[in-house]
Amino acid sequence: MHSTLVIFLDGVGIGKNDTLKNPFFQKQFKFLNEIFGETPHLENQSISKGNKYIFPVDANMNVEGLPQSGTGQTSIFCGVNASKIVGRHFGPFPFSTLKPIIETENIFNSFIKKGLKVNFANAFPQIFFDYINSGRKRLNVTTLMALASDVQLFALVDLLNEKAISADITNRRWNTKMSYNIPIISPETAADRLLKITSENQFTLFEYFFTDHLGHGRNKEDFDILLDDLDRFLFRIISKVADNTTLLICSDHGNLENISVKGHTNNPTLTISAGFGSYNLMTKIKDLSQIKSALIDLY
What we know:
Layout: E1 3-9, H1 23-27, H2 30-36, E2 47-49, E3 52-57, H3 69-78, H4 82-86, H5 99-105, H6 107-113, E4 118-120, E5 122-123, H7 126-133, H8 141-148, H9 156-160, E6 165-166, H10 172-178, H11 187-199, E7 203-208, H12 210-215, H13 223-240, E8 245-250, E9 269-275, H14 278-284, H15 291-296
Parallel strand pairs: 1-7, 1-8, 4-7, 5-6
Antiparallel strand pairs: 2-3, 3-9, 8-9
Helix pairs in contact: 2-13, 5-8, 11-13
């Protein structure tokens, strides 16, 4: 049986071919230009190279306004049009009426019910567990669905034992922002670890949220470092994905592709499939609500 790796990038759309507004054209990322030969933009949204595909996915889903994380992530991981259910786009956290859907319909639950092994590869610092243990549960979609499905949330010991990956990929921000003193690793080492974790499970999720933070104008001092780390990480992942592994890189709404504004965009989300079943994913996924079923249908 094959393995699936989903890398969720918060707030990444396909934008204009504009070096002033679009970091993807400012920086000429390796994971796009060296693998696919070019960077997608609104006039050229779909690109393929072998069994690797870049394609647009609709985050608006026939609901007016700017797409948001709460409804977007619920749509991705629960297979519903969450914005239509709520009556508007909502975020950053999920709307209260979506929580029962997240608890029962999330993708972790769906894979577990099929008898498949799942993994949430992110490592969380102690401050996160202190927050949960305090009784406060204002959490994003991915952590809510992990808690609802009894999927292990990894801690520092798991990060040090190479069983998990830090949200910033290299561990650097654990030291600089949270006063830890742990080894910093290269993006390539992190990618290799994530691919190993993927090979040991049928479904693995890794979440990267700094793309949305950068799009909102946060972490400006780390802008170049974070994007360089992400580029090297994704280049390694896409380059080394095995033939029996399904890779899907997806997002919940546009943002980073237009840094001239600090809010979200109505642009289609940047989506990449590679490896086993990649063509099927490219043909089946047209909006966020179709991602979950397309992944499960491969099993």
